[in-house]
Predict the structure.
Amino acid sequence: MELFYIFIGAVFVNNFVLVRFLGICPFMGVSKQTETALGMGLATTFVMVVSAALTWLLQWFVLEPFGLPFLQTPVFILSIASMVQLVEMFLNKTSPGLHRALGIYLPLITTNCAVLGFSLIAVQGAYSFIQSIIFGLGAGVGFTLALMLLAGIREEMQFADVPEPLKGIGIAFVIAGLLSLAFSGFSGLV
Amino acid sequence: MENLRLIVTPSPHVRDKDTTPNIMFAVLISLIPVAAASLYFFGFNALRLILLGGAAAVATEAIFQKVRGRQITISDGSALVTGVLLALSVPPTLPSWMIIVGSVVAIAIGKQVFGGLGHNIFNPALVGRAFLVASFAQPMTTWTGPFDTVTRATPLVVGAARSSLPDLFFGSVPGSLGETSVLAILLGGIYLFYKGIIDYRITLGVLGSAAVMSFLTGANPVFELFSGSLLFAAVFMATDMVTSPYTPKGRWIFGIGVGFLIMLIRTWGSLPEGVTYAILIMNAVTPLINRWTRPRIYGQGVHKS
Amino acid sequence: MSVKTFFGGIHPNYAKELTAASPIEVLSAPETVVVPMLQHIGAPAVPTVKKGDKVLAGQVIGEAPQPISAPVHAPISGTVVAVTDRPHINGRSVLSVIIENDGQNEWVELDTHPDPVQLDREVILSKIRAAGIVGMGGAGFPTAAKLTPPKDATIDYLILNGAECEPYLTADHRLMLEYAEDVILGAKLMAKVCGAKKIIIGIEDNKMDAVAELQKFSGAIEIALLDTKYPQGGEKQLIKAITGREVPSNGLPFQAGVVVQNVATAVAVAQAVRDGKPLVERIVTVTGPVINEPRNFLVPIGTPLQNIVEAAGGFTEEPGKVIVGGPMMGMAQVGLEAPIVKTSNGILALSKAESHEPNVMPCIKCARCVDVCPVYLLPLRLEAFGMNEMWDEAKAYGAMDCIECGCCTYICPSKRPLLQYIRVAKNQIVAASRKKSS
Amino acid sequence: MGGLMKEFFKGLWNDNPTFRLQIGLCPVLAVTSSALNGLGMGLATTFVLICSSVLISLLKNVIPSKVRIPCYIIVIATFSTIVDLVMHAFLPDLHRVLGIFIPLIVVNCILMGRAEAFASKNSVVSSALDGLGMGLGFTWALTLIGAIREILGSGSIFNHKFVADTAATFGFFSLPPGAFVTVGILIAGMNIISARLRKAS
Amino acid sequence: MNESVRMIVVLTVIAMVSGGLLAWVNDWTGAIISENQLQAMMASIQEVLPTATRVEILSSSPSTLVEEDPDQAREVEQATTEMFIGFDDNDRPVGYAFVGEGPGYGGAVRVLVGVDGASGKILGISIVSHAETPGLGSRIEEESFRSQFVGKTLNDPIALGRDIDALTGATVSSRAVVQAVRTGFEDASIAYERSR
Ligand SMILES: Cc1cc2nc3c(=O)[nH]c(=O)nc-3n(C[C@H](O)[C@H](O)[C@H](O)COP(=O)(O)O)c2cc1C
Ligand SMILES: Cc1cc2nc3c(=O)[nH]c(=O)nc-3n(C[C@H](O)[C@H](O)[C@H](O)COP(=O)(O)O)c2cc1C
Ligand SMILES: Cc1cc2nc3c(=O)[nH]c(=O)nc-3n(C[C@H](O)[C@H](O)[C@H](O)COP(=O)(O)O)c2cc1C
Ligand SMILES: Cc1cc2nc3c(=O)[nH]c(=O)nc-3n(C[C@H](O)[C@H](O)[C@H](O)CO)c2cc1C
Ligand code: SF4
Ligand code: SF4
Ligand code: SF4
Ligand code: SF4
Ligand code: FES
């Protein structure tokens, strides 16, 4: 049940993008089309889950025991970046189809603060290993959900008579605001 | 007969007589019973809020269109519908300036930034309402009883056991202006349904899934449907065609989703009432629903013999 | 009898009472007739006469150059005064043979067969082809071609289309009342040619008198009552309503084991095979709020609209629109010069007030267009794709499946020109695929 | 000199990271519930930006190109962490509000973007000016957004309340949805102003 | 120098310089940071235990309470997480303070409660952290709301609607505070008794 709450909390109540403001750049940048949004979302979810495991191990088996928590930021970001590189190479070797689908998004994800931000929050929350992974899954699914919703709406906007100065990114922000307003209905669910 | 000046246009050459302004005015007519009930129970406050809400919405629309150099189309009645629906969804003691702010936000942020009538994604009246709740949570969650101005809790807060069904049905309970009288809402809803303006799929979807959910969670379905703004929203707000799906299957999904989310928030969330957010969330999903519930086209998937 | 129908469609004001009770009157031929060489789908006929030639009624004046085409015959006897381009009801100029009436009404010799059902299948077919018969329900596809599906196709049903779902028109209604015997004969002949196992006549339930009349002769032929709803007569809708089958997308009715023919086509077939008469006249409803005396005429093909309108007493006031066909699918005319062709089933005159284009408002996504589309398309979406030049998306959303019935445009409360933009998209899609294949 | 000043000014308007390039957006939304928070975040980012630009520019000939990205990450992460620790020690209140967005400076792509696109190719002085301009462009954007949200949402500016404690304010603007909407409308405003300027010139 | 050797050397040097720099900054700031945190906590405790001059941490995790009395385990789990004992100048315990937690509108509400050791009466409460809506739930910080708890003992109901009035429009936040005080109080008093 605990795990379920962690998941629901990350997807809906404290949605990473709409409530915690993490991963806004890809949220705004890769939400023009639902297909690419889904690709980006799935790739990010995947990276989140893997880095949940990775950073949890680093934090509790390396940084804490050796008294190095102040090195958290450089260590996390470097290991996430290398991990993404490895994943990309691995995918390229083993599953060219998946690589083609997700490959273009993977490098973008390294510099997406949702992944690092998620790792820092997971450490702060002192989650167990399994909880961390579920939290990562929830964060990724929440990111994907928000991205898909925004993309669906932005596709609709190509037919709308949006005022010139708001066209493109401006209206995307307003839509994101209203999405966030709608999501505030989930508060208190867990 | 030599010099006939004939008009040449592509077919079809005849059109149905129903128009979009007609539809909007029919919605206003359908709101008469609800407005009358709110006047009866809440008196001058109801009049004040409905007039200000409607006027502010219409004025905002006109100003926006003027600034954009577009044709001013306030006579289509859609802005008035938004303003009146917003007014009917707020507590009777809301200060005048707040309803005006709500209407301005509803039309400006809820509708015009998207390009005006037909282009908005979210229900404008509910955008206005959610803005008001986020800004002025206390005045927006303070209710007074009918016929007086004593602060009282709504049936949703009091609970089923301490509410009288006849009071709920006729509307003699505290609540937002338009939501209290089940009878008045039903009258309006029947009129809209008869005129073919609202889709039964959405309304039934909301009511049905809410009833099933309340049954499953052990709540009293009749009480849940009759209390709060669930019925009002199921009839007048979830059915806003601009912000709900246009595919037949999509409308079922939308309605069921709204009912489910309302009960989810009512039961487990920290808000006593989740109608506003339930509808806004489903509004957001609507483009995806439309895309994923495209009807099968005649003759597609049929084998050529 | 249960009433059959399909999903979608609209209930416009039918306005058939204007002419439903007026018996078919024979309109005598005008001074000159203008006979276009293109009155059908396919290649235009090639004129076989030249200026100065004398022709008899029923004589071939245009030959079919290939199977998907139809010969054209002289409707009257007289002298060819010109073979030249003339305005056509489709709005373009079309090569036409102009014949000056000699008033003799002299016919070529006709080859009659008192018991035509006994004739060989091939003989019947060749008579149909020689008589220049094309679909009289609207599109004008050469009937002989339609009756010869590929060898491996099995035809379960021949459906006679007596729906006449277009508002105002009563030509088929009067035809079924007054030529019931020929309708049945035509059906039997066509069933024999195409090998259909079963014949069904589909009629909307606002024409019960026609049903009663046909039942006198129908024998084993079934009559299916249809809901009175536009476009009940649409081929695909008719097939769905009567057989429950669907014509495959991008396919033809024979692929669903069905051939559909209009009732007027059946009469033309009967008269061609039994009486040897080519298709040179047809029934036309002249009607509309500004027509003085709405009625039905049997008109020689090639008669200018002007003459027919005058025969109906002219206009009560200056019309805003004159339409050949019905109000839903008919063609608005620039003038009254063009002649009636084999597929023209009505002339409709609307007042100026009814003809003004309504004020267009933004789409409010009310989905009425979705609810009425008989092929389950999303007209609002197709329109948006058309307006934004998104041809690939339009194609993916089934623009090519649109039957152009106009229900969506009719019903739209925002008065959007949906069908217009869908047509634009269809044209672009066709143009693009032509470019690709060439 | 004019060239150098251009490096400085471009970040302020034409290539403003927030309103024009739309990069580094998370802190723009997350920490701008008040003007002071916006200012603090902006200055912290500017500090990291200048330091890392200068250092990377200095090291540009030393770092082999194959490992340049990890090197940049280490440099930026180091300065982010320093800011994080120092702020925690000396400005604990601000540090609490800015939360994880201080360590997240490391993934703010203004940083990587500048390192890769500018500092690795230019002299120390122009890199410093570029960093300063970008940083101040980011700072004024955050401060402006923070000020607007604070004025509307809390009725105060730089934590000075100018309405009665009991007065109703537009709390919407203090909440996450208000952040998005404010930025959206400001972007529209920038577009209008830019269009006017373009027309005028 | 060989290219890949150079890569490794440069990377290592940069990483080591970075690590060293950070270690130094961490050393320098670490002391200040913990001092700051202690100061902040002390200031809050001072507020709820005005007579205390010295404070000792009694327990900082539920496990210390659970050890002896397994029956208490379930309740304790969700209650006291941090507890402090205050001593006066003569090193006599004057009372204790504990942090209680309750579920609010926007997440957990954490409350520091000070209790007089002798009378068992609440001396004061302060809100440690919350994420309630500004202007609505955040009014739990107001003195007028917090002062309702002063003087209550475990014999009082400490229940919303009985001896504690909810803030209008913020029942959820009010209930969170009440629950944080009530449940924390019960466990903390047991712990305090034992510790003496
Ligand atoms: C929307 C629509 C409505 C139609 N309605 C009729 C009708 O009422 N009667 C009819 O005979 N044909 C109607 N047609 C034409 C039929 O689809 C079909 O072409 C015709 O019945 C075939 O017979 P024919 O080849 O003898 O004309 C309609 C076509 C369309 C696209
Ligand atoms: C290009 C074209 C080819 C056709 N080929 C055949 C055919 O091979 N066999 C057939 O039975 N009908 C054929 N048809 C006729 C159609 O099935 C249909 O009856 C005709 O288009 C008239 O339909 P409508 O009046 O509903 O528009 C063809 C029609 C067109 C336009
Ligand atoms: C946007 C929003 C924010 C809210 N914030 C709080 C809050 O911080 N604390 C709280 O107790 N209730 C809050 N509420 C209201 C509660 O959900 C609930 O309505 C209230 O506590 C009901 O009790 P009352 O009105 O009887 O006090 C908020 C409601 C909304 C819509
Ligand atoms: C049945 C029906 C329900 C409507 N409900 C709403 C509503 O809940 N909120 C609103 O702002 N407008 C509503 N409208 C009006 C209109 O759709 C609204 O102004 C558009 O959303 C603006 O584009 C409604 C209209 C109809 C016909
Ligand atoms: S690289 Fe980073 S900052 Fe740039 S757009 Fe992508 S996520 Fe945003
Ligand atoms: S619309 Fe088509 S089916 Fe109906 S009467 Fe006209 S031609 Fe026939
Ligand atoms: S009928 Fe008209 S207004 Fe309604 S959805 Fe279709 S196009 Fe839009
Ligand atoms: S989309 Fe085509 S088939 Fe559908 S209703 Fe419109 S015109 Fe008819
Ligand atoms: S700052 Fe760009 S994703 Fe967070």
